[in-house]
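Quick sanity check, F-box domain-containing protein:
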Amino acid sequence: MYRLRGWPDLPEGLLYSIIARLGLVSFSDLVAFSATCRSWRAAFSTLVPLLPPLLLRPDVSLCFPRRPPMTNNLVRTGPCQATNIANQDTYHCCQIPLGSIFGENNTPPSPLKGFRFSGASYGHLIFSRDKSCLVVDVFTGVSVSSPRLPVIKDIKLFYAALTAPLASPNSHIIVNIESRNLFWHVGSQYWVRRSPDDGPIKQIVVFKGRVFGIDSDLKLFKVQLTPQICIQEIPVMESSMIKKWHHSDRWLVICGDMLLMVALRGPIIVTGVTFEVFRLDLSVEPALWLKVEKLENWAIFISTDKRSQALSCMNPEIWGGRSNCVYCYNHDSKHWVALELGKPLQGDGPTSKFNPNIFIFMGRDSRVQPMWVVPGMLSFCW
């Protein structure tokens, strides 16, 4: 007879039953469930691809801000709003530095004055100032500082990203600065210089446990982190389908076993036909970007700032979403909108029935802008 020694020993069937009762739309309960112990997190990980990311909106003020549940007090932080679009629940416990909140004109003095937003990944924001980086968990306020960058003067970072969740033993930060890349193994005392010969990597994504990156010319690279950092170019066949306008606005995103590139053809007025999606085929040599006409049962989430990690969700109809859509943020209405790939008309969103075109700004800013995020503790499962 099977005997339980404790809560971690509950059989998988019973754990799945508990998850089903919580429902996919109860994000806070699911986070608490996954944080209970390793066995519960393992059971939960199979359902993570079905969860939509949360919409972090630092441009929406809170009437009743609450103190964060925990903080290491390295920096002064303040609450903003994260929304679960599955049920419109809002969470006021996420934290971002006060000195960098988007749209705040009367922000109190902060130790982060002068810090610039440089990227977001795995539930963390990355800032830079005075030749160093600061990584902040937006849901707890816990922050980690890097060693000083090996540069002569304080220069703006063009891009910064984590290669793995911050708590991972092999987590690195890669930055693009002064036309080269620098890597910091989180917890170490120094940065390592590594860059492709023709220019720095401008964006990375982790696919099947391997780090891939692209530069401004869409050259593809594989980044090896251990035992030492090594960057290797992957030959890719040129395609006439990828036009020049794809070079300025593109996001790498993982959808199951597919590595996709989402390309934007217009920087301001955006509709479903504005986006084009390409799938990387590594089964041939050289590799090839193939045009994707339909996302099938996937939805993609891209943020206002191009340096924020793009995310995906499988079978969004489960929580009321729509497949074959690119979810963005509409600055006019301060709400999300779903744009169906290849369709001229809008899908979901409060402004879609009034205006066939929607103003969606895509660019870079030194301040935090609306973005899609996943809590850091769930990034191990994502």
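Posting the structure with no commentary besides this: Helices lie at 12-22, 27-34, 38-45.
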